[in-house]
Amino acid sequence: MESKCDRISGIMCWFSLVRSRLCLLKFDYQATGIFMALAPILSKSYIEQRGTAYWIEGTRISLDSVVYSFLNGDSPESIAQNFPLLSLEQVYGAIAFYLANRSLIDAYLQEGEAEFERLQQTCREKSPLLYQKLKAAQAQKQ
């Protein structure tokens, strides 16, 4: 049979267990609260989409500009120097966005290049004389 001391000991053990779990729950709640407070800081956005184009958030600098510089071998530091409105953090954020969404952004860039070619061809057809003069000026310059 269980003695009175064993029962009291069991109850104390149970209270101890409950108290420790409450402490854990309190800690988890506090930790979650801290995490929730830090979440906006940890998930900073560097790119925004306006219409069909991507831009460095809060600027008039396109993601295209940073990506093409990066693909041409420029370091993030030199990109930040070439675009004085961008902080080094924004440049790294843009590069990270590109690397995380590489297939999407590569398709977007190819689409932009194709559109440029179409527009250039349309302009050549509308103003052939102008393009002949430009070609002659380029040849003379070389």
The first-to-last residue Cα distance is 107 Å
Question: How many strand segments?
Answer: 2
Rg, nearest Å: 31 Å
Shape: elongated
Summarize the helix and strand pattern as letters: HEEHHHHH
- Look at the helices and sheets and give the structural class: mainly alpha
Beta content: 5-15%
Mean pLDDT over all positions: 82
Count structural domains: 2
Largest sheet, in brief, is: 2 strands, antiparallel
SS field, number of helical segments: 6
- Kindly state the percentage of residues in helix: over 70%
Poorly predicted runs:
20-29
Across the major sheet, the strand order is 1-2
Write the layout of secondary structure elements.
Blueprint (H helix, E strand, L loop, with lengths): L3 H39 L4 E4 L2 E4 L6 H9 L4 H7 L5 H13 L1 H25 L1 H14 L1
Antiparallel strand pairs: 1-2
Helix pairs in contact: 2-4, 3-4
Description:
With 142 residues, this protein is mainly α. The chain folds into two domains: 1-43; 47-141, no CATH class. The chain has helices at 4-42, 63-71, 76-82, 88-100, 102-126, 128-141, and strands at residues 47-50, 53-56. A hairpin with a 2-residue loop joins strand 1 and strand 2. It is elongated, with a radius of gyration of 31 Å. The N and C termini lie far apart (107 Å).
